[in-house]
């Protein structure tokens, strides 16, 4: 339903944010994962027809939407990373304002829809309060409600769970999975877990290019047989990084769990481990010259002797 062909975008300061993006996305949840500055928001804004591209084409349901943005806008829902609100306007009044902009002209059904969305985003209690006084999480939920106005066919969500507490995040995930049955939902984030839990299809973006595409399980399965882990002391980390391809490391009960990429067991004390999406993500970023958590240096130069992995 959505097709992006050779999309390129260079800003006036010379930053080439998108370098020839090709993507075909059908109904359902599609995850876009990438580090800071990868070009995710640039792609989202261009898809939402808020900025022109230098090159390439975007088709939605067969319409060329860079040439005819008016064909997309009535069926588009967009949650940007940051959005402003009119000071003093209540959640209900502001949603009504946006609904009118989306040409929801029938007053009764418009108000019914707003009430449903306030309920779905848990904002009914504060419907008459000014959005400008909302907490970060409440504001984000308001943003989600406005994006869902008019039952969009293309829903573009840039970092939608930023600032949501675990309960609200969970509520939002359930809402999304219900919606995505007949909508193209593009979810941009750097939270790997969100994509893993929600998206049957995804792409990884780095330095303005798609570096991987597929189901999360397919991407992580590529690491099977090549991923090893061990628990080591903190002071051994730097030596381990020097000797092995460390994909990531994290503290576990005061020790460091290291994950290493190697064709065969890198050293006694390492055990094979099944690849997860996060491992695939860090591996791909490292292969494309990006800094990954596995390369973050420890200060200690002690010799590396891994302990028995649990
Ligand atoms: N309006 C702009 N003018 C100039 N440069 C920009 C503009 N917007 C983005 N950039 C640059 O384009 C590149 C891609 O930025 P973009 O915001 O699209 O990345 P992102 O993947 O969304 O990052 P983040 O996860 O940090 O939000 C960055 O180098 C950024 O500095």
From TrEMBL:
The keyword Cytoplasm appears for this protein: no
Record has Glycosyltransferase as a keyword: no
Residue intervals of the ABC transporter domain: 2-232
Membrane-crossing segments per the record: none
InterPro entries on file: AAA+_ATPase, ABC_transporter-like_ATP-bd, ABC_transporter-like_CS, P-loop_NTPase
Pfam families: ABC_tran
SMART domains hit by this protein: AAA
SUPFAM superfamilies in alphabetical order: P-loop containing nucleoside triphosphate hydrolases
Keywords per UniProt: ATP-binding, Nucleotide-binding, Transport
Gene Ontology molecular-function annotations: ATP binding; ATP hydrolysis activity
Family statement drawn from the similarity comment of this UniProt entry: Belongs to the ABC transporter superfamily.
PANTHER family per the UniProt record, alphabetical: ABC TRANSPORTER, ATP-BINDING PROTEIN (PTHR43335)
Name of the protein in question: ABC transporter ATP-binding protein
Species: Thalassomonas actiniarum
